[in-house]
Amino acid sequence: METPDPGAPTLQIGAVAERTELSIRTLRHYDDVGLVRPSGRSVGGFRLYTQSDVERLLLIRRMKPLGYTLEEMADVLRAADAHRAEPSEQTAEALAEYLRNATARRDDLVRQVARADEFIELLRAAGAAPSPTWRPGISIDPEK
């Protein structure tokens, strides 16, 4: 595959990295393991990504905080592709299972953030400096 559809606009890896907030190294890794391969390559061998490729990468980026492994991410992408290509009760149920799983993982994250917030409040209550500009006896809290 030399180039994607000649009419489709493409982006090189640096622009994709900037747009997706994924590192160039990560994008190359995803290509190497087959998670998301660029739609083509330029004559000079540069990876060329289409908008569809970028959307897949953004979906993956959204899975990362939920702790999905690369294999699990690939499974979700395959299920979504299968449902998009030929919707059926089976593909819909597969996506529903991923939704239940993602919801449970998100709920776990919410609990972790709540614990982190409690810890931060305990540090503040113990007298930890709230910012690099804090000095003893000077409150930067507008309420005090």
Any chance you could write out the topology, listing elements then pairs?
Elements: E1 11-12, H1 13-20, H2 24-33, E2 40-41, E3 47-49, H3 51-63, H4 70-85, H5 89-125
Antiparallel strand pairs: 1-3, 2-3
Helix pairs in contact: 4-5
Describe the structure.
The protein has 144 residues and is mainly α. Helices cover 58% and strands 5% of the residues. It has five helices and three strands, in the order E-H-H-E-E-H-H-H. It has a three-stranded antiparallel beta sheet with strand order 1-3-2. A hairpin with a 5-residue loop joins strand 2 and strand 3. The protein is flat, with a radius of gyration of 22 Å.
Structure summary:
The chain is 58% helix and 5% strand. The chain is mainly alpha-helical. Helix 4 packs across helix 5 (89-125).
- Terminal CA distance: 65 Å
Largest sheet data: 3 strands, antiparallel
Give the radius of gyration.
Answer: 22 Å
What's the overall average pLDDT, rounded?
89
- SS field, number of helical segments: 5
- Helix-strand pattern: EHHEEHHH
Which regions contain 5 or more consecutive residues with pLDDT less than 50? none
Strand line-up in the sheet with most strands: 1-3-2
Tell me how many strands there are. 3
> What fraction of the residues are assigned to beta strands by DSSP?
under 5%
Shape descriptor reads: flat
Provide the helix percentage: 55-70%
Counting helices, strands and paired strands, the structural category is mainly alpha
